[in-house]
Amino acid sequence: MPNHLPSQSRIPGIVPALNEWPSFSPGDRVRVASRSPIGHYRVPVYLRGMTGTVVSIIEPVMVDNETEGYGQNAGSRRHYYRVSFRLRTIWAAYSGAPADELRIEIFETWLERI
Amino acid sequence: MAHEHEHDHDHPHAEISVSEMPGYYEVMETAIRELLIDKQLITGNDIRHQIEVLDSRTPALGAKVVARAWVDAAFRERLLADGRAACEELGISFYDDTRLIVLENTETVHNLIVCTLCSCYPRPVLGLPPDWYKLKPYRARAVSEPRIVLAEFGTIIPDDVEVRVSDSTAAVRYLVLPRRPEATDDYSEEQLAGLVTRDAMIGVIPVTLGMEN
User: Fold this and answer.
1) Looking at residue B210, what is its pLDDT?
2) Which of B19, B118, B144, B188 is the catalytic position?
3) What is the CATH number of domain A7-113?
4) Mean pLDDT of all residues in chain A?
5) Which of A22, B25, B92, B128 makes a 20 to 30 Å CA pair with B55?
6) Residues 51-90 of A with CB under 8 A from B
């Protein structure tokens, strides 16, 4: 059960719908799943398996673009997260400044907690 | 096949027409469009209207948003908190139902936007993307060697400034809020908007007074 909303915004006894509340919070370390689905996907290959940090939760919950691509416009809505990665951790030979970052929005089903 | 005709004038030139065979994707697009119309799911007028919607969006809208953010601190805060809602305040609709995150350039962070998977772009506020934005060299290099790409645009970012690349891939679009140039204190909002270019809102160049007409 996702349980990461700030406690002050919760009322005891209120039960959210499945996936209504975000599973991750800003600051969480996450890994992008390294699966390789066939067909329409929205997570670039260069980020699969990479480790990053959740910067923010993108509201509101949305339908997964990957299923929407096949005409499924209803059903399971979840959050997208803005996730940051150090460019140095993505590219071993990265020659720019150490602080340089990549940021991207990733659907909840692609993220694993670490 | 080229149409043959007599020329009255004295110089040769190519026939002004499309003489190449349509490519694979062009044929597929035509076939799907005709099927959708045949099955009465959409009309030819729907397509024409959507082209009109796209043509009505230009970088002038984005420039207006940027200039407002420069002169109105409260608007700037709303823009950074929810880009779409703030643009809607100015009458800019999000016909494609995308979210908008506005990325503020500061003394310590320089933002750049790209879509590595295709050509996601903040079309509601900027219109159609430039061709180079859609081509693979930019898409691949913007995320792997952004500083070198920026340098090719003439933009040298000091090492103590973080380069932050945002890859738009799904439901969110990005717009760069460039830094306001110095010595523009006496500029009107309209004059400021005149300084803001498309490329500055993608993040490949800064806004400078030199771009002024």
Assistant:
1) 73
2) B118
3) 2.30.30.50
4) 88
5) B25
6) 58, 62, 65, 80, 82, 87, 90
